[in-house]
Structures are given as C-alpha cells and as structure tokens.
Design brief:
Layout lengths: L3 H4 L10 H14 L4 E8 L5 E7 L9 E6 L7 H18 L8 H7 L3 E5 L4 H10 L18 E4 L10 E5 L5 E4 L2 E7 L8 E6 L1 E4 L44 H11 L4 E9 L3 E4 L11 H18 L3 E3 H4 L12 H8 L3 E7 L2 H4 L17 H14 L8 E6 L3 E6 L15 H16 L5 E11 L3 E10 L20 E8 L2 E2 L6 E5 L26 E9 L3 E8 L3 E8 L1
Parallel strand pairs: 3-4, 3-11, 11-14, 12-13
Antiparallel strand pairs: 1-2, 2-4, 5-10, 6-9, 6-16, 7-8, 7-9, 12-14, 15-16, 17-18, 18-22, 19-21, 19-23, 20-22, 23-24
The structure holds zinc ion.
The site of zinc ion has 3 residues, from loops.
Amino acid sequence: MPSLADASLGFRHAYLDHDRLTAQLHAWTERFPDFCRLGSIARTPEGRDVWLLTIGPDPDRIRPAVWVDGNLHAGELAGSSVALAIAEDAIRAHVEPESLELPPAILDRLRGVLFYVVPRISPDGAECVLRTARSLRSVPRDPRVERGQPRWAIGDIDGDGLALAMRVQDPGGELVEAPELPGLLVERTLEDEGPFYKLYPEGMIENFDGKRVPSPFFLSDNPIDLNRNFPWSWAPGHEQIGAGAFATSEPESRGVVEFTTAHPEIFAWLNLHTFGGVLIRPLGHAPDSKMEPEDLAIFRQLEAWTLEHAGYPTVSGYEEFLYEPDKPLRGDITDYAYNQRGALAYVVELWDLFKRLGMARPPKFAQYYERVSRADLVKLAWWDRDENGGRSFPPWRPFDHPQLGRVEIGGIDPRVGMWNPPLHELPAVCSAQAAVLLRVAALAPRLRIDRIERRPLPGGITRVEVRVHNDGYLGSYGLPSAKKLEFNEPVYAAARADGCELVDPGAAHQILGHLEGWGHGLHTGANLPAYPGTRGTTNAAWATYLVRGAGALELRIGSCRAGFVSSRVEI
Ligand SMILES: [Zn+2]
C-alpha cells in the first residue's frame, strides 16, 4: 500500500491555496480509494468546490460519525491545516495504525467511526486572503442593495498585489509610533509628542465627498459572516452584525446545513478557528446552570484532553466569550451543531498567541483580545522579528493616494504570526488537535448483537431471543441532551423471515428504545466507592420472535444515529 507520507502535500508546514488543497484531497482518494471518498457540498460564486472528505471503509454504511470543519472565516487558514491533519490521522488509523500513538482500545473504537472533514468552508475567502492579505471576515462579496453611504472598499492601491494598511498623519490621530520600534503603531498616550496617525485599510472610499473619511469597519465591503448565518437562533442584521439576508442565505452555510441534516449519525463536531488558544464549548446563549449536567460532565472529559494535548483551557461561549455582556451571538455554527443537530460540538481557537506574549489570563477569556497593551504589542513585534521572520510588520512606503493625498502603505500583514501560527509552530498545533479529536471519535456509541438464543416450542415453533447492546462510551442517542431531538429515534429491530414465518407479523418491527453507554464524563461522583456508581443493564435490549417453520431471520437493528448491525439467524 502507498504511504501517507508520500501522499502529503505539506499542509502541516504551509497554508495551502485552493488548488493545492484540492490536489491533497485527490492524492488521498487516488491512493486510498477503499478509505476515502471526495464530494462537494457546495459550489461558491467564484466557482470553487467546498470539499467534503469522507474517511472510513464502506462509507454508505450508516454508523456514528464525527464532523470536522475549518476556515469558515477567510483568514483563519490554520483551521484548514488542522482539519487536513485530522483527516490524515483518520486515514492513518486504517492504513498505518501502528504509527499512531494511541492505545489499542482507542484505535479499535475510532476505526469503527466515519469521519466527515470539510477543511475549508470558505474557499473564496481563503484564496482572497492568501493572495492579497486583505482583511476579510468570510466571503469576498457584497450582495447589499443599499449603496448610498460612504464606506471603505478594500483593495490593492499601490500595485504590489497586496491590500495591507494605510497610515495618514493627523494631529488628532489615535496612534503613535512606538519609540522602541519605529514603524510599529501603538495607542497614543498623553505623554506622546507625535507625529500621530490614523490607520485605514488599503483601498478606496466609495461615495467620498472629498473631506469626510468613513471609520474603518471590518465588514465594510464584505458584510456576511458565515458564522452568523446558521439557522439555530439566527437573527437579522439589525440584531446580529454579519447575519446575511436570511439563515443559510449563502451557498457555503447552506451546503453544511443540507449535508448535516441528512446525516443524523454525526454525534461530534469540531469547528476550527483562530486565534486565541482556547476551546469554546456550549452553551453559547445561557449560563452553565441552564445546561444539562450530563452534557457538561462529558464536556469535562473533552476539556481534560484538550488541556493535556494542546495546553488550551476550556471556556463556555456564554460565560467567557461574549463580545458584549448578555448579548449572545446569533446564528453561529456550533450553536446549530449542538442545539439543532445534537452534536458534542466545540470550537477551537487555534494558536495561543496571548500565552506566547506572557499576558496574564483575564477574568473572561474574550477580554484577552481587548487587553493587548502597548507593551504587549512591542513584545509582539520583537517576537515577530526574532521568530516569525518579520512577516507581520512590513515597512511603510510613501504613496500618493488618489483620494487622500500623501499616505504610507504597508505596516501590517496579520496572515502568518497573528491570524495564524508561524509555519514552524504549525506541526505541533496540528498534531495536538488530531490527538484530541481521535479520542472524541472513540466516544461513539457502538451496537453489537451479542447473544442469540433459539428455543424449540411445540407445534414447529421456535422462540428466538436476540440481545443487542451498546458497548460505546456514549448512549445510542449521543449526547444526553440530544435525546429530545425529534430525529433521534430509539433503537429498533427490523426482521425479515426467509423460508419461515413470524407467528405475529407485527413483531417484524420492534422498538427497543435507547441504549445507554458506559461513559458519564468527569466529576460526577460515580468514582466514590462509598456509594454504588453503576447502573443496571440500561445498555442492552432484547428482541423476541416466535417463528413457524425452518428458514432464517434477517435482522437489522439500530437507529439513524447509532447506525445498524445485522445478523442472519438460521432457524
Ligand atoms: Zn473565526
């Protein structure tokens, strides 16, 4: 069999463009056709496919599945690399299992799980950022019809192909050059003597009156944030910036929702972002006291793995990651994944830049982003020069702007070093998240038919009793809170008599109910020997048949989420 190393196009050491990412996916499907299948869940307005790689033998056989996506935000390229690394390790579990540093029990379980990997939800956005370095939230398009206001339209002005930053000297400027590091713009203080600067994106002003410069706004010419465009708790633009015209108005988010709605077997969901170095878990809209305690206990297991392998802390979206207090984000993908699809859903903000700068953890994690001080910024610039090849702070060059006159262009290129880890850090970022996700996959419910008993009765009748049990960590429903979702049907047994016949034809379809798993998360008190911490046989169910004559019963037992097991019982 060909080796995975030969098939790698270097995503653990580089940020791939769409062509190379596509070539990587084809390299796997061509070399490992028994374990990889490539599909497209959407086509973008610029004509790129949103690729979905399915990993696992016999991909149409329904069984528990995990979903991994990245690069929904255009500049967050490391998400694609990490998603590809997870895909590579999932393939490795089948083709080179000995090279994975995993206990055999975990390996055995995750090999029974299907992986759906979408390495780049926004290929148009990523391509635009890779080519131009421009600031772009999700997609490089603006479908708005209201065009009367002045606004910044970002783009290359000086002809170097890049859209970086522009600074303009202004006595009322909010920024000043750091004395320690000329060129680096920092917050102005009362002691500073100038010159002072205003900072704009490289670009032109639409509807410019020749005098008033509009304030830069990160969604000025790209109003859609795909991570506000998902259906659960979606709200329109006046309530949620970036929402889009309606939930799933964009082909990328619609493709995700259509596929995942058709695949209730997805029980876990990793949504990759940058940056921060943190795992963000549900709830996103309410405090932990409103969360199902059994869910919370299982998320504590995830928290422990993420701390162990990546060194990242875990926070709740609501408790520590609201940008405005008491104003939950609306329409984001993990809220959809957790609340609407019942998945063990989590966000990882890759790349712990704040920790690298030695910043103390603030009371709420999201405050890191607002607390970067002047001294931190100088530290960042030193670090960039010493460890990142000076990529983040290119020099300023004078330029005569057609609207603003004399400006300077350059200054800031956040692609590698701020938005994403430097390339030499990327391999470790990839392997840490793969180690965690493979363990999450091993939590899957797993149905087994473990006992079949036949007992002859008078009159040529045989009593057949079949025991099915779940030997997985999670119940047949996945997360406990997912039990309430209408698609999350109980386990059922379907029988077809071949040659013989069922005494009661109605017994051909029997509802067996959900089967619990053995796992219950961490810190639930079940470990205390003073009180019994185990349950009865809530993990097993029995289907009973009365069969007349000789022949066989074809059994298929399972559910749309837990998958199906089958058996032929000769009578
Ligand atoms: Zn993001």
